[in-house]
Each structure stands twice: as C-alpha cells, then as structure tokens.
Amino acid sequence: MTDSIMSKAATMEIPINSNGDTGTLPEDDSLEQAAKLQWSLDEKVGSSRGTRDLQQVMVSGPNLNETSIVSGGYGGTAEGIIPTSSIKGSNMHHSSSNSSMMSEETTRGVAVEKLETMKKWGLNTYKCTKQMISERFGRGSRTVDLELEAQIEVLRDTKRKYENVLRLARALTNHFYNMVQTQHALGDTFADLSQKSPELRDEFGYNAETQKLLCKNGETLLGAINFFVSSINTLVNKTMEDTLMTIKMYENARLEFDAYRSDLEELSLGPRDAVAMARIDAAQQQYQIQKDKYERLRSDVTIKLKFLEENKVKVMHKQLLLFHNAISAYFAGNQQQLEQTLKQFNIKLRPPGADKPSWLEEQ
Q: How many whole angstroms separate alpha carbon 200 and alpha carbon 315?
C-alpha cells in the first residue's frame, strides 16, 4: 500500500497558487495521513525488533561459529568469505596431525634404541662364544690369575664339603626328633601301665620317669642341633653363595675381556688403512672398557674371599664348640651341663605347644 501511495504522489501534479504556495488538494490530506501512519508503524515495528535483537544478543551472546571474515574490501563477493568454523577445524586438524607425528617419532626412536641394544648384545655374544670355543679347543689364550683361581677352587671345594655336613646334620635332626617322639610316647605308655598294673607299678614308674627325662634332654639337644643347622645353612647358602655369584660375574667379565683383547690383536695384525684404523680405535675403546670392568670385579672377588674366610672361621669355631658340648652333655646324662651350654650360646628353646595355633587363630 505504501508503494502505491508513493508512486501516486510522485506522478501527481502540484498546483501553485499566486503567492507561490502549494495549493491544498483533497488528496493531500490522505497522502499525509498515510505517510504518518506508515512512519509510526515502521517506528513501532523497528523499535520492538531492535529490542528483541538486543535482548537476544545480551542473553546468548554472538555466535562465533557463524561469524564470517571478509577477505576483500567492502562489498566483496561471497568467495572471499571464510567461516571461522572452518578455520577452527583446520587448526584442530593440524594439531592432531602434529601430535600423531610426534608419537610416531617417539615410537621410532624407541624402536631404533632397542635395535641398537640388540645389535650390541648380539655382537658381544658372538665374540664371547667365539672366545669360549677357542679356549676349549686350545686355540685361544685366556687371562689367568693363578693365586685367585686357586682361592676360588678352594672355596668351591669347601662349599661342597659344608653342604655334605649340612645334609648329614639335617638327617641327624630328623632321626633324633623321631627318637624323642618315640621316647615321649613310650613314657606315656609306661605311666598308664603303672596305674593299671599294681604288681608292676614301681617298675613301670621308674621307666616312665626315665623316658620323660630323656625326652626333656632330647628336646634340649634338638634345640642346639637346630641352631647348628641354621648357622651352617646361612653360611653355605647365603654367605658363600653371594661370593660365588660375584665370582661368576668376574668369570664372565674375564671372558669378555679376553674376547675383546683377541679381537684387538687380530685387527692390529691386519692392514692399516683409514677404515682399519677406525675399527682399531673402536676396538681399543671397547678393550679398555672391558679391562676396567675385569679389574674391578677381580678386586671385588679378592675382598669378598678374604672376608668370607674370616667369617667362616668365626662362625664354625662357635658352632663346632656348641655341637661338641651339647652332644657330650646329652650322652653323658649331664642335664645341667646341657642346659648351661644352651645358655652359653644364647639359645632359647620354644615352650611346648608354641608351634600350635591358638583357638582364635584356628577359627
């Protein structure tokens, strides 16, 4: 309606009065009223729409994902408009690709490191195996410390003999334990028969008391023998075994040292060009590393053998004295000397029934 009114107003002739003023026509009032009405309607609609848009912006804020960046000047074409959502997605794609590339590089680095380790291990194993075979067939030379090798052989022989002592002492403990249990049962039987046989009450009573006394002394002797077995077991399976483990490490270091020494000797007899000299320098470095390791372990073995010998003498002096005094006192029937022997070596016997769990523990 507004367009029709405006077009009508544009084509209408405006009469001029004698004084130059526009004349008043019947249609002027209608045009002015229509224009005023349309202006008021547009003002109300625009104000209400602007209010709603402002409220919406203040409540929800601008949608950044729908914001566009115009690359050209004002009035540029749509081809220069780049949505920010596409820029955000591109950045995320680049960041994810960068992280994946970093993870791949890390994995590749770990794989290369493992490969180098396996390569060094394989080369070292090859050299040591070659050296071992050469020594067994008498074609290769080996480094020998005669004094240290003799001490190591004495230790191995001593360990075998002490293991035999330990085996026999455990067998004695088992047999003697069974004998003590038999004496205990026999004493109970004699005591029961003493109550039920009036004509042999005294005879059964004497034997019952004797068996109970032997059982008591036997338990005391078992305490001494168990202490002896425990000390020998610690000496053989812990102290000596620890020294033998160090000796094994020393022997492996000796084999590696001889392997790299032989390799260096072979390279030294070959040509002396640039490549050969580089290999000789690398072999010289490895030889020095293995030599330092070999000498360090040889020193450790020497020190441990010395302390082991001192510890062995001290321990065995005490344990052999305990074993002799306890066995002698028991078979001599000297109960007081047997108990004194245990006190001398600070051996405490477990009270009867100590190994049995309590009623609460059984529940």
A: 51
